[in-house]
Fold this protein.
Amino acid sequence: MKKINLLTFFLFLNFASYAQERELETFRDKVYTYVNYDKNNNSEIKSIQLQKDKLLKELEKSFLSFILNEKSHNFDTIKKNAASIGKGIRCTEIRKDYSIKSKEHNIDILVSLNGIYDFGRPEFVSFFIQPFHIENEDYIVYYYKLNGKGKYYIKNLKDNKLLLESEAFSSHRAIANMFQIDENHLLIIEYMDSKGQRAYVLNKSKNNLEQALSFKGKTFIKNTTNYTKSTKLTYEPSRKYLHIAGNENIIDHNNLYKKFIFYDKESQTISYVINNKGELSSAKWINNSFEIDDFYLGNYMHDEPMPMPEPLKTD
């Protein structure tokens, strides 16, 4: 009986690995088909646009199939399958925090589809897998982007169930950090490239995660795209996001993955730096809410273009 059970177990492992290999290859092929069709069909003709939409939906469906494979977060399995598939698929480990030596709960995964350029951009299409161990729960964030647009998905590893789908604003990893505030709430901090970072709260008391209106205070006027020292804010008694805004010049002077929003689990306090002295604006979690204003990083960071070097003088 034990031999039969062991045989069944190993057959299951091999099948799961093969299934992931097939799903990864399918996603790669769907991306290739979509990108090349778009490249060769720039017309606004309705039939062409409908075909693009159809190919994009097929691509998204194949990515979801990959996500829902129970082994889709395992680096060794993905790397093995990528090597088996070939076709330029590369799998790389990236540390979440380079100041921490240990790899435990400190590794994200980058999967690159080498040879498939992201439309007119100089980089290959890729996607990120970010595992987060929060208290006794494991959440996996999956994020891919195409032509500057992307979505990320949050999965509960224990149930292998998708909990959230959200638009992403990062050219690299989608999530800077994730914390449990209390039994029913998670704090998510997003990367937004040159637009800075933002935080939001998820209510997990229901079957799926839902964004909560857990911030109050001054916020940037809706649909603001360019942030400066004179950008106006307006008071909102309840809002979804805390936004620490930047611009391309600020990011040029700083690390893309620099943390701007901080959270202390012990005191349940969210904060950000407001000046060069390191002083903080902070808010405690009270009655399921943080009372804290949005902020523009250029209020204390250099937000002008980097100066061009002067030409060398010749005699």
